[in-house]
C-alpha cells in the first residue's frame, strides 16, 4: 500500500495529493522496518514526497561468523558477564602421587631415573617398588597381586605406572604352591595369564586412580622376543578393558629401528650424544639406554596427569 501511495504522489499536484490523503483516512501505512515504533507511538509520519524516490538503505550484511544474527543489548551484557574458561592445564593444589611398580626395569636403571625425573617436577611426588626376576607367572616366588595391593594402600597414588611381564614366559604357579600349574604354551595359558593381569589391575585401579601400563620393549634375544609377542597383546587388551582408567603405552617404537629390529644406538640426554642402549645380552639396558627409555616414558606420565613439563628451579 505504501508503494501505491508513493507512485500517486508523483502524478498529482500538491492539492490533489492532499485530497487523496484525506480519502485514505483510516488507512494506516506500514512503517519502514528501520523506523517502526511501538503501538503507543501512533501512526508513522508520511514521508516527504521529495524524498520518496530515494532508495531505503540496505540492511547491513550479517557476519557469517555469528550465524547472521545481530547481537541484542541483552546478548552483549551476557557476553560481558560470562567469565572466560581458564586456558591450559589445571594445576593441583597438592602434588599428584605416582607409584612405579615392576620387575628389574623398575628396580634398577629405568625405574630409578624415571623416579628422579618425576620427583623433580614441582607437582609430582613419585614412589617406586621393584623386584628383579619377578612377574605374574611365579606367584610362589613373588606375589605381585598381593604386593601391589599393599603398596597402593600405603602410598594412595593417583597414578600407577607398571612395567612387568618380561619374566612371564613360563609355567603359571600358585601362591605357596597351592593349585595346579598351567604349563607354558598350553591352550589354557593365555586365559589364565589374562586372569592374573585382570586381578592385578583390579588392585591398583580405583574411581580416582588410573594405570599407565608400559608395554615391554623389543628384546634382541630371539627366544624371549617370541614369548613377548604372546604376552604383550594380553596385557594391552586387559588395560584397554578398563576404559578411561587404563592407558597402554606401546614402547616398541622407542627401541626398534626402521627394519623392525632392535635399536642399538641413539642420541641420549640433553647433549644428544650417540650412545649404546643395550647390554651385551641384548635384553637389559645400559645406563644410557635407561636414560633414553625413561626420557620417553616421562612425558607420557605427564600427559596422563594433564600436567605441563615444568622444569625445576635451579
What structural keywords apply?
single chain, 314 residues, alpha/beta, Rossmann fold, 2 domains, 5-stranded parallel beta sheet, two-stranded antiparallel ribbon, 10 helices, 7 strands, 37% helix, 11% strand, globular, disordered N terminus
Note the topology.
Elements: H1 2-11, H2 14-23, H3 73-81, E1 96-102, H4 104-107, H5 109-120, E2 124-130, H6 144-155, E3 159-163, H7 189-204, E4 210-214, H8 222-240, E5 246-249, H9 252-255, E6 265-268, E7 273-276, H10 287-305
Parallel strand pairs: 1-2, 1-3, 3-4, 4-5
Antiparallel strand pairs: 6-7
Describe the protein in words:
With 314 residues, the chain is of the alpha/beta class. Helices cover 37% and strands 11% of the residues. The protein has two domains: 30 residues, no CATH class; 210 residues, Rossmann fold (3-Layer(aba) Sandwich), CATH 3.40.50. It has ten helices and seven strands. The strands form two sheets. It has a five-stranded parallel beta sheet with strand order 2-1-3-4-5, sandwiched between helices. A two-stranded antiparallel sheet has the order 6-7. Helix 5 crosses helix 10 and helix 7 packs across helix 8. The longest helix is centred in the last third of the chain and has 19 residues. The protein is globular. The N terminus is likely disordered.
